[in-house]
Every structure is written in C-alpha cells, then in structure tokens.
Design a protein that fits this description.
Helix content is 28%, strand content 32%. By secondary structure, it is α+β, with helices and mostly antiparallel strands. It has one domain. The chain has a 7-stranded antiparallel β-sheet, with helices on one face. The radius of gyration is 16 Å and the shape is globular.
Length: 145
C-alpha cells in the first residue's frame, strides 16, 4: 500500500510515466533477490566517457567488483553501474525534469535493458543512452573472476 501511494505521489510531482513504470519494474527486479550477476554495458553520448565501452561488468553482493574491456583486460570499477543504480538514474532524470526518458525492460528479469535520456529537447548533443546486454546471473559462491 505504501509503495502505491509513493508511486502516485511521484507521478503527480514528476508527470513522468516512465519514472513510475521504472519504480514498478524496480520492485519486480528487487523481489527476485538477484545480487550476483554479469552484463555488458554500453554508453552512448557526447559526454567524454573514457572507460571501456562496451564494458563487461561483474556485480557481487550488489557491488561492482570487476570491469573489463569486452576483448579482455581489467579496468577500475569506480563509476560503473549496478542494475539498482541504473534504476536510480531513471528516477533522478525524471525528478530533474528531463524532457524525454525512454526505457525498455528485460522481459525475464525486469531490469532496464535500454535507457535514453534527453534533458532538453532544444539542446544539441545532450542526449545519453545506456544499454545492458548479455545479462547472466551468478551464484553467490561462484568465484569472483
């Protein structure tokens, strides 16, 4: 009940259906209790992103533990997202008044598999996109490769 009130209040405040849908999908993601997983992450923007792109991200116990170039080779983990932080990015974009927030969700696990944010429709090249591909769950005791 409390979460439904929160969703309704947020919809009124932000006027952003995609944020409300994201909160609903985040609840579906969280009830699955997936804390260990790996995915390929791609950023699309004119923002000076300098890390591996795409990158293979490994998460154990809800913390990014490894970032690799797709072809191999490790990279610092700072600044790379978990699935939960991608949900937070969607909520933040809506709360900050982004003109466009489009999200496509994974049909099995409910995480955002594609995010597109345009903060100002009249500003060129401020758009940013994020993509999650090749998602796999890992066991908690699986070796942290």
């Amino acid at each position: 009940m409390r979460s439904r009130i929160w969703l309704a209040a947020l919809a009124l405040l932000t006027g952003c259906d995609s944020v409300v849908e994201s909160l609903r999908r985040q609840e579906l993601w969280q009830v699955q209790e997936i804390h260990d997983y790996r995915f390929v992450y791609t950023v699309g923007c004119f923002c000076g992103f300098t890390g591996p792109n795409p990158a293979v991200i490994t998460v154990h116990n809800d913390v990014v533990t490894k970032v690799e170039y797709v072809g191999g080779g490790s990279y610092a983990v700072a600044g790379y997202p978990t699935i939960d932080s991608l949900f937070a990015r969607i909520t933040r974009a809506g709360g900050e008044g982004a003109k466009t927030v489009r999200v496509d969700y994974d049909e099995t696990y409910e995480f955002p598999k594609s995010i597109f944010i345009d903060r100002d429709e009249h500003t060129a090249d401020d758009e940013i996109s994020f993509k999650v591909e090749n998602f796999i769950t890992l066991s908690a005791d699986q070796e942290k490769e």
